[in-house]
Amino acid sequence: MPATLLATRRVEKPWGSHKLWPGFADPQADARPVGEVWFEAAGEPDLLIKYLFTSEKLSVQNHPSDDEAHKRGLPRGKDECWLILAAEPDSTIAIGPKAPVTADALRTAALDGSIVDLLDWKPVKAGDFFYSHSGVIHAIGAGLTLIEVQQNSDTTYRLYDYGRPRELHLDDGVAVAELVPYVAPSAPGEIAPGRSILVEGPKFVLERWDGGTRDIALGAEQQGWLIPMVGAGSVGGVAFEAGQCVLVEGSEMIEAEAGSDLLFAYSGAARL
Predict the structure, then answer these.
(1) What are the pLDDT digits (tens) for 150-202?
(2) Separation of alpha carbons 46 and 140, rounded Å
(3) Which residues fall within 8 angstroms of residue 219, CB to CB, at 6 or more apart?
(4) Is 179 exposed, middle or buried (0-12, 13-18, 19+ CB in 10 A)?
(5) Annotated catalytic residue within 158, 195, 214, 271
(6) Contact 63/157 with Cβ under 8 angstroms?
(7) Is 166 among the catalytic positions?
(8) How far does CA 128 lie from the centroid of its chain?
(9) Would you put residue 116 in left (φ > 0), alpha (ψ -120 to 50) or beta?
(10) Where does 143-241 have alpha helices with state H?
(11) What is the C-alpha to C-alpha distance for residues 177 and 103, in angstroms, rounded to an integer?
């Protein structure tokens, strides 16, 4: 199929929320909070798209690179990025240490909780964007709604979890950790009216589009994920609206109503 509307999977999390995003039904007051909504595709696609809803800080964590994942018998590593849709006034994201740290010092800080103070906590607001490549130590804060685009891997190494009764992964997490302050990669930004590049490789490209009509031509081995944040439209005969995600293959025309705000992610390092 050239275009497929993806099914959603709601994932309950202790740090989740009872207040979701337009397009998603809020859980009942007596139900467990929803932390994530996944868009699921058949097979083993390269990318995974999620919405996240946080009422508490997530664990301090990182992810392996492809090379480190292969050493551990895993199919791929995990680069990821986040576009903030909504944020409470005091919301933050930690990304990388404030200063260089040794592996031994990182392990000690993870064990005694002082790792929280080692991290660079950045205030965030709606519209902010972060790219977190594999190895970067990070923690998503409370009071956020965001879209996450990532390599299709659920391998997470928790370094610290605020006393929650969940497993930590200090050996692997320290082994793959980037021990120097985070430096954000540059992105081309707006390359045409209504078309911006947020991420350009090495694992995927992420574009942001206004409404209108666009032709896309994906390679034979490529797939694309159309994520409408605002508005509605159609692609390959499949209608879409905010809160949905469409998997696209081949060459297609995407039509979105005026005022739409769309993300389009696709695997590979080169833009279309």
Answers:
(1) 999 999 999 999 999 999 999 999 999 999 999 999 889 999 999 999 999 89
(2) 23
(3) 268
(4) middle
(5) 158
(6) yes
(7) no
(8) 13
(9) alpha
(10) 170-176
(11) 8
